[in-house]
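Problem statement: downstream parser choked on a complex file, so we are re-checking the raw output for the NAP run. The parser issue turned out to be on our end (a line-ending mismatch), but while we're here, posting the original submission so the record is complete.
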Amino acid sequence: MITRKLGAHGPDVSAQGLGCMGMSEFYGPGDEAQNIATLERALELGITFWDTSDAYGPHTNEELLGRVLQGRRDKVFLATKFGIVRDPNNAAARGVSGRPEYVRQAVEGSLRRLKTDYIDLYYQHRVDREVPIEETVGAMAKLVEEGKVRHLGLSEASAASIARAAKVHPITALQSEYSLWTRDPETTGTLAACREHGIAFVAYSPLGRGFLTGAITKPDDFAEDDYRRHNPRFTGENFTKNLALVEKVKKFAADKGCTPGQLALAWVLSRGPDIVPIPGTKRVKYLEENAGAMDVKLSESELAEIDAVFPPNAAVGDRYQANMMGSINA
Ligand SMILES: NC(=O)c1ccc[n+]([C@@H]2O[C@H](COP(=O)([O-])OP(=O)(O)OC[C@H]3O[C@@H](n4cnc5c(N)ncnc54)[C@H](OP(=O)(O)O)[C@@H]3O)[C@@H](O)[C@H]2O)c1
């Protein structure tokens, strides 16, 4: 397995991780046997940097991983998150908490569901604008002292928050959306802040929530409860305009001899040795295809061509709906 070092403070992990979120929520119906087969295959392939959160399900995604990891916890570098507060009885309800007492309550829940006594990488899922990040990271640092957590991470934190957090405790990884159609970290300063502080950049939704694979051709492809029905990039005219961009990716990939999804992942990998994409899938077939992206190399001239075909900011529509935009880059 090709590996990458997880920032200045972390270990080597598989150069591509596995996003487990869609196994439990957001991207259509899941299936326990299919999920388990995918996780087993990831282990066989050496894709052992797994990503979950207490918010996914809510809670059931961690339980799934807990079941699969029984007896082989040491095979996986396990990342989970806290801070998006959800109510299992009300799927739409969302809050953000970075209060120190909440951090402690959350970690105990995650450890129980994951059936483990340590978490390799513990992220604050969203920065709480009401709680100074020093207080939240201070509480997270205590978990490291106690051996419950090995490394600290942040998700969708701004450059300023990253700098403040890094003064309290070394931060191993920042997780934010990054892909051909979401290049914000290049301009918001977050990627630069990571590099300044020796923090790995973990790219989530590197396949544009599936759109960049070319497999999604009409909004009706989604199940009724699929989150993407509400995401601005997947709705109305935006969908059609973004599809035209993906058509160009498809053509480029065909000429290159890879799939569009592999091209999208190879592009993320090409952006620096400190970047680790975590494509999500619940299917063995996609997992295997995505793993193949680690062998796709893009030359400088091909990268320039991709920039011309899919320029930064070319995608139409915000990456989240309005009520969720406020919690990103906080
Ligand atoms: N920190 C955060 O706030 C945050 C936010 C979002 C996601 N994440 C993490 O990042 C991970 C990855 O992001 P993501 O799942 O949102 O988006 P993604 O990896 O860009 O795309 C996932 C979607 O692409 C589909 N797909 C995957 N490989 C494919 C292939 N080879 N061909 C066709 N379709 C393919 C999947 O289908 P199937 O579902 O059918 O397999 C799924 O619908 C998540 O699982 C989660 O762990 C974190």
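For whoever reads this later: The mean pLDDT is 97.
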